[in-house]
Amino acid sequence: MILKKTAITLFAGMCLLANGQNLIKNGDCNSDSIPEEFGQGGAADQVKLSIFTEESTGNRCLKFELIKYRTDKDGKRLVNTFVRFGGSRKTWGVACKPDTTYRFSVEIKGDAPRAMFNYQQWDDPKNNWKSSIKRTSIHLFHPQKEWTRYQGTFRTGPNAKRVALCIYFWGREASNDMPEKIGQYILIDKIDVEEVKDETAAGSGK
User: Fold this and answer.
1) N or C: which terminus of the chain carries fewer CB neighbours within 10 A?
2) How confident is the model at residue 200 (pLDDT cuts 50, 70, 90)?
3) Mean of pLDDT values over 150-168
4) Whose CA is closest to 185, among 103, 81, 92?
5) How far apart are CA 94 and CA 46, in angstroms?
């Protein structure tokens, strides 16, 4: 097993939690091709998702790279795209419990100036297109040059049937909020999403 340097750890709630099984089957990103539980949303054509091998270590991870802008009605550039973890091509998101806190942990590095954590929730067990996007306990973050572990929580709603962790690229030139540049990327590895058994230790995670 390849050991990677973790530079910074961000916690939401207490560090020591009693957790369940990882809901992400391919969290180590060691497959030859993109696992079908890794999906894309928003303007999916704005990014390239690929399995990447680090030359110095041989470690395999997921690469999420911005490859194009979109424009609004006034011709201003914008970025709104994300990678989703959990589920399959047929059914987006993994089965979850309502009113339940989940903890996530992800290792990330890259040259993108920023990215965002959210989670996607489905109250309808069958309709992939009817969902809501909500913030996790940590939202905006700035990727580092070294591998960094990010940890946070989110809490499902009272009618939640399925859920997926998401990482976003977002920017809008019309709002003077567009640091994103074509070719910028983040590398993603060690993705873990687990039910928190000890709710008193975790807090709400919202």
Assistant:
1) N
2) low
3) 98
4) 81
5) 25
Would you say residue 4 has pLDDT above 70? Answer: no
Mean residue pLDDT of the chain comes to 90
* Pair 103, 193: CB distance under 8 Å: yes
pLDDT at 140 over 60: yes
The residues spanned by each domain of the chain are 9-202
pTM: 0.87
Whole-number Å distance between alpha carbons of 33 and 69 = 25
**Where in 32-88 does DSSP place strands (E)?**
38-42, 47-53, 60-66, 70-71, 77-85
Residues across the chain = 206
DSSP string, 4-36: -----EE-SS-S---B---S-TTTT--SSS--T
CB neighbours of residue 176 within 10 Å: 6
Placement of tokens 């340097």 in the chain: 5
How far, CA to CA in Å, does 114 sit from each of 93, 134, 135, 140?
Answer: 24, 18, 15, 7
Is 70 exceeded by the pLDDT of residue 102? yes
Alpha-carbon gap, residue 133 to 136, rounded angstroms? 10
9-202 adopts what CATH topology? Jelly Rolls (2.60.120)
